[in-house]
Amino acid sequence: MSDLEQLKVLRSKLDHWAAAEGFAKVGIADLELDQASLNLRNWLSQKYQADMNWIEDRLDLRENPKKLVPGALRAICFRMDYLQDKVQPLQILEDPSKAYVSRYALGRDYHKLIRKKLARIAGQIQDWANQELEQRPFVDSAPVMEKPLGHKAGLGWIGKNTLLLSQEGGSWFFLGEILTSLELPIDHHREENQCGKCKACMTCCPTDAFPEPYVLDARKCISYLTIENSGPIPVELRKPMGNRVFGCDDCQLVCPWNRDVSLSTNEHFSPRHQLDNSGLVEIFTWDQNSFEEKTAGSPIRRAGYEQWQRNLAVGLGNGPASAEAIKALQGSESSSPLVREHIEWALNQLTS
C-alpha cells in the first residue's frame, strides 16, 4: 500500500475516532491563512477588538500556525454540537425577570473536555502512524484562527455574524483542532456561503454590533461586554443588554440555518444549577462562596464574581421594578466600586 493510500485509510479512521468521541464532523485543512490574516489585520486597524490586546500581541502566531507547532502541515478540525433546547432560550429572553446565560455556558466548560478528547485522537494518530509526529490539540485558548481553518476544512462557511455556519449544524457547536506534521489529504469540498441577502443576525443585534456584514465590533458586543470586559459597561449599552447577563445568542437564535438543527445529547453540556431558568434576583443574591460553588467547572467562572454581579445589576435595572428587585439591589454588601456603580444605575432605572 502506497503512502497516499495509507493516509486515505487514516482519513477514514479519523471519522470513526471523532464520532466515538462525540464529534459531529471532522475535516482536514492546509495552514495557508493569507486571506484570513488580511481580514484580521483590517479588523484590528478599526480597533474593533476593544481592549483584547492579546489578539494583536500574538498576531504572528495566529498567522503562522507552524510557529505554534514546528513542522505542522495540516489542521485536523473538529465540530462538537452543544445546543440542548431550541424553545427555552426565546422564552427566557422574553421574561425580564429571568437571567439569560448564553447556551454554550450552561454546562461544563468545553475547553478541557474537548482538549482531552482531541489528545486521545492525537494519540491514536501517533500509534497508527508508527513514527514520531509533531502534534498538538487546541480548543479556543491559543492563538489559532479556528473559524478560517474550519471553513477550509469543510466544516461550514463564515456567516455575516462572523460565526462558522453549517447547513446541517447551524452554528451551535464548538470547534477544536489538532495541528499535525502528518501530510494528510486535504478536504477540498467546502460549503458555499448560504447567507444570501439575509441580514437577520445584523438587524436583531440589541447593540448594533455589526457595522457591516461579516464584521463584528467587539466594543458593542454583549458577549464581549459581559465576559471579556473587566471595566464598566458603557451607559448607552446597558439598556439594550436587557436580561443578558453572560454572553448573547441573539444572532444565532434568529439565523435561519439554526431552525432545524438536531439537539445535542451530550450530558456534559446539560444546564447546571438551573442557570437556564433562574431569576435575576435569586442569583444576584449569591455570595462569593455560592458563586464559586455553583460555577465550578463552568465557563461562567471566567468572568469572576465581580463581573457577574455587575452584569446582574444591569439585568435587574432592565427588569420589572419589583419590591424584591429593589430590596436586593439596596441590600447588596458589595464593596466593589465597579459593582456599586452599576447597582446605583439599576436603582435609578427602577425608582425614577
Task: Give your account of this protein's structure.
By secondary structure, the protein is α+β, with helices and mostly antiparallel strands. The chain has 2 domains: 3-90 and 107-180, no CATH class; 200-351, no CATH class. The protein contains 16 helices and 9 strands. The chain has helices spanning 3-20, 34-45, 54-57, 59-63, 88-93, 110-129, 146-152, 200-204, 222-228, 235-241, 250-253, 280-284, 288-294, 304-317, 323-330, 337-351; strands spanning 25-29, 74-81, 98-101, 135-138, 157-158, 164-165, 173-180, 244-246, 278-279. The chain has a 4-stranded antiparallel β-sheet, with helices on both faces. A hairpin with a 5-residue loop joins β5 (157-158) and β6. α14 packs parallel to α16 (337-351). The longest helix is centred in the middle third of the chain and has 20 residues, at 110-129. The model has no long low-confidence stretch (mean pLDDT 95).
Secondary-structure blueprint:
Layout lengths: L2 H18 L4 E5 L4 H12 L8 H4 L1 H5 L10 E8 L6 H6 L4 E4 L8 H20 L5 E4 L7 H7 L4 E2 L5 E2 L7 E8 L19 H5 L17 H7 L6 H7 L2 E3 L3 H4 L24 E2 H5 L3 H7 L9 H14 L5 H8 L6 H15 L1
Parallel strand pairs: 3-8
Antiparallel strand pairs: 1-2, 2-7, 3-9, 4-7, 5-6
Helix pairs in contact: 1-6, 14-16
